[in-house]
Specification:
There is one protein chain. With 312 residues, the protein is α/β, with parallel strands linked by helices. It folds into two domains: 176 residues, inorganic pyrophosphatase (n-terminal core); 122 residues, Diaminopimelate Epimerase, Chain A, domain 1. Helices cover 42% and strands 22% of the residues. It has a seven-stranded mixed sheet. Helix 2 crosses helix 8, helix 5 packs antiparallel against helix 6 and helix 6 packs across helix 7. The longest helix is centred in the middle third of the chain and has 21 residues. It starts with a helix and ends with a strand.
Amino acid sequence: MRRFLSALWAKLSNRPLALCDSGDVDGITSAALFLRKYSNGVVVLAAPSEVNRSWWIKRLFWTFVADLPCPGKALIRADHHRTNKPCAKVEFYDPEAPCSALMAMKAFGLEGDPVANSLVKVAIETDTASVTSDEAEKLDLAVRFASYNEKIYIVRSLAVNGLGSLNNVKIRDLVNRGYRAKKLMLEIASRIPIREVINIYSPVNLGISYRQLTIELQHRGAKMVNILLRLDRRTFRYYCGADRSSPYDCTQVAARLGGGGHKYASGAQYKSPFFSPGKGIEVFINTLKTYLNTDRLEVLELTGNSVRAMTY
């Protein structure tokens, strides 16, 4: 409701209105670049799955859309996902670009702005899973575990103060929360046997970043990591990560589950039939069997402190 009211207020007050991805640093920095260009603008954050199913998002005309499927009515769109089809009046779209924030910076003519360049740098690091700077790690940790209101706070702070926002007390607290979750993620990763392809099912949310877990397992030697998280009785979230030197293509799995992304990092969110909630797991297993061309699939089930191997 807050997002709808924010968008409605922007329309009634004739303010520029942006729709950006809520899930990662790329979307958050793209939103910050929008506010750096339009200080009176209004930002709405959403996940790709929300764009596809929300009637009011599709009804509005957006000044700017970044790092998301186009809702249908947009003036400017900045993106680099092969699975997101262009549709805005002005497209800054390059599937070879390392992040959407780079395209947003070009869209707003901010290439000469040091703050914009520093934000794009960390967006490139996080979106290519090649985090090397302290700033990129901290911003990534802050964003991953922030609530919607906290993400909007981060966007506004970045727009004015750039990476200096990391010295903000409130954002430092978010970073520390992220470090605690990362520690738990590393403990879980240490219990997972490394295979070329690792398939994981988590029936409950363990309070970690599952995207971060895919990256960590890749660093430890996996060539492809598939994770299914059960969000509620019927809703499931799929995460995929693949090594760039491998033949695996995450979009081939994510697209079959109704999602998309990049060859080496994709995701999807879907619901199982109302009367058959268990079908959500079957869809995941059967999709992987088809893609991997196998009749037997090992799936590791994460439950609290235990990892149990199941064969389907």
